[in-house]
């Protein structure tokens, strides 16, 4: 892959309000479809971004409204990268492994706390980093090209 090629990067910024999260989810879905992902893959990518942004609002900003959550969606020739950054609190810990919960059995799912497990199961790569006072979650999903 030629990484020196310029790939589209779309930056979205929302206030830390849960009623704004659907906007970035729908954007990720549309951009995923544009990038060649199938409908169910786009659904999964949308879900992961919604989980990450919701996590930033609920945990990073402790539900306080009107802070900034920034989202970068980067389209590569073979994958999509989603970057969520915020200036709130960092996580107390970043789990190393996904929980042993069966996400296909809706009755067994807890009310909350599933976001990182879902992201780890759906996305091909996920990292967390802190740059100064900014917390950054990066997720990548490769196209399966079925």
Structure in words:
- This protein is α+β, with helices and mostly antiparallel strands.
- It has a single domain, classed as 2-Layer Sandwich (Heat Shock Protein 90), CATH 3.30.565.
- It has helices at residues 21-34, 39-60, 115-122; strands at residues 9-15, 68-75, 79-86, 125-131, 134-142.
- The protein has a five-stranded antiparallel beta sheet, covered by helices on one side.
- It is globular, with a radius of gyration of 15 Å.
- The two termini are 19 Å apart.
Brief digest:
The protein has helices at residues 21-34, 39-60, 115-122, and strands at 9-15, 68-75, 79-86, 125-131, 134-142. It is an alpha+beta fold and 146 residues long.
Question: Which key terms come to mind for this protein?
Answer:
146 residues, alpha+beta, Heat Shock Protein 90, five-stranded antiparallel beta sheet, 27% strand
């Amino acid at each position: 892959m030629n990484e020196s090629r310029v790939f589209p990067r779309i930056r979205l910024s929302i206030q830390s309000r849960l009623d704004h999260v659907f906007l970035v989810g729908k954007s990720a879905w549309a951009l995923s479809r544009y990038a060649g992902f199938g409908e169910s893959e786009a659904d999964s990518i949308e879900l992961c971004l919604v989980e990450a942004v919701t996590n930033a609002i609920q945990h990073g900003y402790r539900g306080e409204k009107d802070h900034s959550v920034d989202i970068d969606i980067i389209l590569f020739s073979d994958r999509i990268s989603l970057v969520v950054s915020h200036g709130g609190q960092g996580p107390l810990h970043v789990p190393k492994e996904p929980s042993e919960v069966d996400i296909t059995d809706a009755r067994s799912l807890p009310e909350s706390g599933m976001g990182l497990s879902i992201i780890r199961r759906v996305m091909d790569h996920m990292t967390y980093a802190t740059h100064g006072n900014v917390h950054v979650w990066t997720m990548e999903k490769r196209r399966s090209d079925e």
